[in-house]
């Protein structure tokens, strides 16, 4: 039933270069969160810090009472058994076929018999639509298949927390839509805590319960999906609507001259907030909130046309 | 400025810390027998033939050199002994080391480096498996085992090569070559040769694993890691050989000296 991740005052730098600082947020148990940010803002670094692959310079990450930033290596290996991680390229073991890859965590960590392992592996392979490809080597399949195989391996130990490192990078829009649906269905099914790192706007607008935005070496905002999608905050607004007008420039933030030149420009109105993606069986997820609830509770008027359809304000074809 | 000057010390410290990690993981169960056997077989398969081919000229050169020198002293009957001493004590472990570092070590560094940049090692750690225990320990042990056996093979092939060159090319007498074996050489020479081979295998595998697991910067990083691991291993091996030889010559006095 998912566990909460409490991140407090986290900072990380490489050498003298600060990647991000003072990141404080709580990833609620069982919910889907998306961490957004322009390229090069350290989203993947954030993910790797969460699983203890990188040590933060200061701050704490508390999961079930254990602080990942300061615990011993033994505790770290224990707590990692709660995690399932989907790496950017799947990170499949190149010397094993897909079946052995997915079976690997079971063989290493459990005393299950080969026939039990076979049942579990086949179930997960079916879940990600890879039945029939068990004997292929990771080098022989496409990037999308590798990603799905990586997801099957991440799920095989029934994790409490699933982290996705750019699940949609390098996938075509149709496969991305299927993968997003799969993520929502999975969350409905296993109730684990999901954290997705991406810069795909469509994913961010429709999939999560909460959105966070990393920008300019800090966490610009973290909160419920409707809060960010209805936000007038310049950075959030620019990023979530993929506009050129705003503080984010081509390389990093814009300088004063560029901002002054934009001062008079009228911002296009906020697009309507789309409906959240439902699980394919139609039964809302346990952590899902009714559309428009946050806006009503906080007295925010959502942009006109909100909550009418599931693809409002999105790029076509989704 | 000072940080740049101190950087090599940091690297040396990291390498040593890595070696300690490996030593600690050595005793952690379960032992990865399958990986160990696969790696031992793999390292043996890439090193046996080149080692044998290197060993023949090695033995021959020593036989020719020593034979020529010894002839001037009129002590041809000791040629066999001298070449056995040189081959068993020095040439065999060094030849083994070069091949273990050049063929086995580079393969290990390339393999682990590729796994590192494909995030396989990260994935393994996230799955709660320590890559040092799972991957490095079997490789280190496999390298030591193969080095041990290669050392024996180089000794045999080298001495045989020396025999052929001494008898066929330098008109030495077969009987004298064989009979003089024990005139200068003694059993501890064999032990130190084998000990050296074990130490060299250890160093080669540790350096190669360390470099491979710390590769970064894409495919080029893997190439650099392989290159650095071979160079560093060679340097370390020659230093280790020097130190071990010094200690040995102090502890075990040469026969007939």
Quick overview of this protein structure:
Chain A has 318 residues and is of the alpha/beta class. Helix content of chain A is 32%, strand content 19%. Chain A is globular.
SSE inventory with pairings:
The complex is a heterodimer of chains A (318) and B (257).
Chain A: E1 5-14, E2 17-27, E3 32-36, H1 43-50, E4 58-63, E5 66-67, H2 73-79, E6 83-86, H3 98-109, H4 114-127, H5 143-155, E7 161-165, H6 173-190, E8 193-197, H7 201-206, E9 210-215, E10 218-224, H8 225-229, H9 234-240, H10 256-262, H11 293-297
Parallel strand pairs in A: 3-8, 3-9, 6-7, 7-8
Antiparallel strand pairs in A: 1-2, 1-4, 4-5, 9-10
Helix pairs in contact in A: 3-4, 3-5, 4-5
Chain B: H1 2-25, H2 33-72, H3 79-117, H4 120-126, H5 131-169, H6 174-179, H7 181-184, H8 187-213, H9 218-251
Give a verbal description of the structure:
The complex is a heterodimer of chains A (318) and B (257). By secondary structure, chain A is of the alpha/beta class. Chain A has a domain at 5-223: Rossmann fold (3-Layer(aba) Sandwich), CATH 3.40.50.300. Chain A has eleven helices and ten strands. In chain A, strands 6-7-8-3-9-10 form a six-stranded mixed sheet. A four-stranded antiparallel sheet of chain A has the order 2-1-4-5, with no helix packed on it. In chain A, helix 6 links the parallel strand 7 (161-165) and strand 8 (193-197). The two termini of chain A are 30 Å apart. Chain B has 257 residues and is mainly α. Chain B has one domain (47-251). Chain B is built from nine helices and no strands. Chain B is elongated, with a radius of gyration of 21 Å. The model of chain B has no long low-confidence stretch (mean pLDDT 86). Chain A binds chain B through residues 48, 51, 53, 77-78, 80-81, 83, 85, 87-89, 91-94, 104-105, 108-109, 150, 153, 157, and chain B through 114-115, 118-120, 122-130.
């Amino acid at each position: 039933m998912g566990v909460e991740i409490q991140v407090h005052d986290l900072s990380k730098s490489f050498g003298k270069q600060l990647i991000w600082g003072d990141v404080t947020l709580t990833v609620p148990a069982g919910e889907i969160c998306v961490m957004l940010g322009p390229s090069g803002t350290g989203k993947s670094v954030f993910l790797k810090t969460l699983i203890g692959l990188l040590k933060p310079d200061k701050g704490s990450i508390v999961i079930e009472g254990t602080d990942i930033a300061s615990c011993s290596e033994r505790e770290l290996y224990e707590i990692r058994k709660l995690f399932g991680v989907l790496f950017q390229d799947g990170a499949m073991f190149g010397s094993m076929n897909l079946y052995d890859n997915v079976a690997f965590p079971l063989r290493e960590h459990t005393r299950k018999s080969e026939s039990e392992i076979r049942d579990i592996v086949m179930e997960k392979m079916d879940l990600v639509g890879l039945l029939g490809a068990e004997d292929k080597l990771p080098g022989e399949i496409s990037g999308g298949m590798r990603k799905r195989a990586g997801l099957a391996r991440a799920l095989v130990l029934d994790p409490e927390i699933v982290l996705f490192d750019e699940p949609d990078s390098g996938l075509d829009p149709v496969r991305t839509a299927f993968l997003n649906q799969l993520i929502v269905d999975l969350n409905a099914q296993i109730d684990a805590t999901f954290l997705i790192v991406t810069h795909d706007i469509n994913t961010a607008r429709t999939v999560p319960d909460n959105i966070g935005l990393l920008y300019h070496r800090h966490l610009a905002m973290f909160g419920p999906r409707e809060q960010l999608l209805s936000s007038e905050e310049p950075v959030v607004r620019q990023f979530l609507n993929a506009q050129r007008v705003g503080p984010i420039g081509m390389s990093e933030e814009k300088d004063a001259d560029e901002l002054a030149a934009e001062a008079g420009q009228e911002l296009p109105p906020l697009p309507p907030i789309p409906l959240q993606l439902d699980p394919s069986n139609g039964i809302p997820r346990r952590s899902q909130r009714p559309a428009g609830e946050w806006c009503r509770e906080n007295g925010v008027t959502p942009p006109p046309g909100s909550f009418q359809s599931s693809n409002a304000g999105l790029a076509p074809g989704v | 400025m000072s940080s740049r000057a101190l950087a090599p010390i940091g690297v040396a410290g990291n390498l040593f810390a890595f070696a300690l990690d490996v030593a600690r993981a050595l005793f952690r169960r379960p032992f990865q027998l399958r990986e160990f056997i696969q790696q031992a077989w793999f390292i043996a398969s890439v090193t046996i033939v080149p080692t044998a081919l290197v060993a023949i000229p090695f033995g021959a050169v020593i036989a020719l050199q020593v034979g020529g020198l010894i002839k001037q002293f009129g002590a041809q009957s000791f040629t066999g002994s001298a070449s056995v001493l040189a081959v068993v004590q020095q040439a065999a472990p060094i030849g083994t080391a070069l091949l273990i570092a050049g063929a086995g070590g580079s393969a290990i560094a390339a393999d682990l480096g590729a796994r590192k940049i494909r995030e396989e090692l990260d994935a393994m750690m996230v799955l709660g498996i320590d890559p040092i225990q799972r991957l490095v320990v079997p490789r280190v042990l496999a390298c030591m085992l193969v080095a041990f056996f290669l050392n024996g093979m180089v000794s045999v092939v080298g001495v045989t090569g020396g025999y052929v060159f001494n008898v066929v090319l330098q008109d030495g007498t077969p009987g004298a070559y064989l009979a003089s074996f024990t005139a200068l050489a003694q059993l501890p020479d064999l032990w130190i040769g084998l000990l050296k081979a074990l130490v060299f295998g250890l160093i080669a595998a540790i350096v190669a694993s360390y470099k491979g697991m710390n590769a970064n910067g894409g495919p080029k990083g893997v190439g650099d890691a392989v290159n650095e691991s071979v160079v560093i291993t060679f340097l370390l091996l020659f230093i280790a050989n020097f130190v071990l030889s010094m200690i040995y010559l102090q502890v075990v006095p040469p026969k007939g000296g």
